[in-house]
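protien #1 (seq + structre)
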Amino acid sequence: MAKTVRIGSGMGFYGDSWLPALQTARRGGVRYLSFDHLSELTLAILQKDRARNPSAGYTRDITGMMKDLLPVAREQGIRLITNAGGINPAGARAEVVRVAKSLGLGGLKVAVVTGDGIIDRLAALQARGVTLRHQDTGRELETVRDRLLFANVYLGARPIVRALEQGADVVVTGRTTDAALFLAPLIHEFGWRPDDWDRLAAGVVIGHLMECSGQASGGNFSGKWWEVPDLWKIGYPIAEVSEDGDAVFGKAPETGGLISVDTVKEQLLYEIHDPTTYLTPDVVADFSEVELRDLAPNQVRVSGARGRPAPPTLKAVMGYADGFMGHGLIGYAWPDALAKARRAEEIIRRQVQGLGIAAEEVVAEFVGLNSIHGPLATPPKDFEHNEVYLHMAIRTRGREDAERFGRLFAPLGLNGPPFIGWLAGLSPTRELIGLWPAAVPREEIEPYVSVDTVAVE
């Protein structure tokens, strides 16, 4: 019988539930569980954590996740792969080791992948001719250089493979591509070569389908979502992958949700720009000929990915201080709820101008009317809202202006349109972090990547 490997999806974002992964570990027969905690926004959140506490910078959910999963993974022989390290992967590895010790899991091997953080190397990179220009606008990095807070490069699967080769039971990384977390165990198990482009592309497709947890198993489904059963106990996707890269997607028995061509197709198209050229550090994947086929209830076969040589550059994402946000919220009740909210917006805008608050941008939205669809929302005709909330936000260069803006909302309770609702505006201002994408030659990054594995005493 041909060899197959079963990999489970463990998490789709920082704050996602790992309880379905626990059910996968207990009943899914998987060899690996991969957890995707990171987005570019997450790095900004973790930078704020690190600014308050230099030992922070990794996702704080790793503690509870490991407490629940490590005993089951040890018992079942499951290896865990996570990018929860964020901008402090060494700190995350130390936390995993601490939790493992507290559980008495001596001998557990925990690896950390480092080298994606490059903020201390930017000057050296520029001296070697790496421009680090903004990938979309072409702006020079010097325009924000003195405001940079972090800089990380998206790594591929190979460092994770090295960790698995070292016998790691748990692999902790910083910024990797989402798909790399799932591709790495396939490379390790099947011995796929670095130039085995079609198989690597198949692994990327599998990783892409699994990186968002329940989004491929009936969660966030825009089809007949009301027919998806038992979302309260949704099962995350499991891929049983063969050596040629074909895979059968399913989920653990006795879990809710739905695996179908339609649910898998939605995830396949998620965040895809050019489906023929999906760039990753490991391969340029072509999604355009991927075939999805229902095999049985909650079983979908995925095949047909094609690949081309990996790109010569890696993507870096840098974060820089980009001012402050002040905001406020006020609600109005029937009658004339929308008209009252619109008048409140007018009052606030006039006060911003009259007080000389230096606003680089002001955004207003009406919750219940256009806060999700924005300018695409069609105002209803001959309809009286029961309630409407006005939410306004301002971006300023200085904290003081942002705080002054927030203080404008409370007085509207007595000094604006007739008010029976709820208001907020005195919450702390939020420091904004801008994101700066850039391309870096891979030969300037990969030699600096290291993998270190330790055994829990």
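ok now protien #2
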Amino acid sequence: MELRQLEYFVAVAEERNFTRAAERVHISQSGVSAQIRQLERELGAELFDRSARTVTLTVAGKAALEHARAALAAAGALGRAVDEVTGLVRGRLTVGMVVGCTVTPLFDALAAFHRAHPGVEISLLEDNSDRLVEAVRSGGLDLALAGLAAAPDDLETLTITSERLVAAVPPDHPLAGRDGVTLHDLGSHRIICMPYGTGLRTVFDRACAARNLRPDIALQAGAADAVADLAARGLGVAVLSESMAAAHRDRLVARVIEDVETPALLALVWRGGPGPAVREFVRHTRRAFAAGPA
């Protein structure tokens, strides 16, 4: 017997009609009937009572049905198992990373994945966060590490960091002596911030818009180090996340922007129902970020 015969048998049993079963399996009714007859000859018993308008199972047919379903399920599982192995032997993985960031645990995850699955071709691309997320949605990227204002509802997300926004200034700046600052306090200062399309900038812009504030964005840079460096030279107040500012604590004082309560997120995003390479890379990423700081 053949798997296709079992497939046709199950289709007829469930549809209780040869015509509908033929439509379901996309062959002619005569083709379905011929294959069922062949199966019955091989088994030595009729599987269907064809005497009425509605096709019903015989006693032998009822006994065979669950076994046929189990055989088809096992064949499907076999195919999926082979696909899993093939995807990790000679697959391809395209990863996106937010521009201007050196994220060591992500590189550790890439290296660990490559050691475990050297046959998978890895690509790494940089872009701003908005475009990375759209590329994941469209299938241009398998995964991306992006800065977000909120986790997308339509994508799977692994949050790496969730941090408040801070104003970072040199120690002699007027804001340095305060315990905290507000968006209104920043209104009289030039702002140095990340560009549109980044999660941090989206959080900042939304908070300002909610209060009808229009900050003076004097300078923009895609890398947090560049934003901090410009602020350290007295060119304005840097708006950064807590960890971004902490990396420059030797020359900048960071104060939480108290009325920006929405955190900026750094997260790995991917589509639902991922293939084996994506699942494996997510596993390596979880392990890498758990082992060391972002």
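The mean pLDDT is 89.
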